[in-house]
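Quick one, probably user error.
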């Protein structure tokens, strides 16, 4: 399974833990806004949607609530 997380913050550690508990064969990608981003073991940082593999199974949008609609577009 391939998952994209947009807006990787402190709450996403819980998301990542839950995903890994449910599925051991998982690739997690984090769309990051800046080159200087925290590294999380097993999470691949990307800086553009062009860097994603072709097939993503689902997306978690967890940036600021006021940015959700813009992010979806």
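Nope, works fine. Designed sequence:
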């Amino acid at each position: 399974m391939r998952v994209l997380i947009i807006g990787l913050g402190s709450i996403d550690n819980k998301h990542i833990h839950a995903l890994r508990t449910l599925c051991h064969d998982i690739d997690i990608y984090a769309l990051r806004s800046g080159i200087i981003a925290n590294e999380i073991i097993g999470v691949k940082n990307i800086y553009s949607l062009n860097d994603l593999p072709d097939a993503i199974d689902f997306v978690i949008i967890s940036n600021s609530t006021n940015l959700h609609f813009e992010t979806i577009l």
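The radius of gyration is 12 Å.
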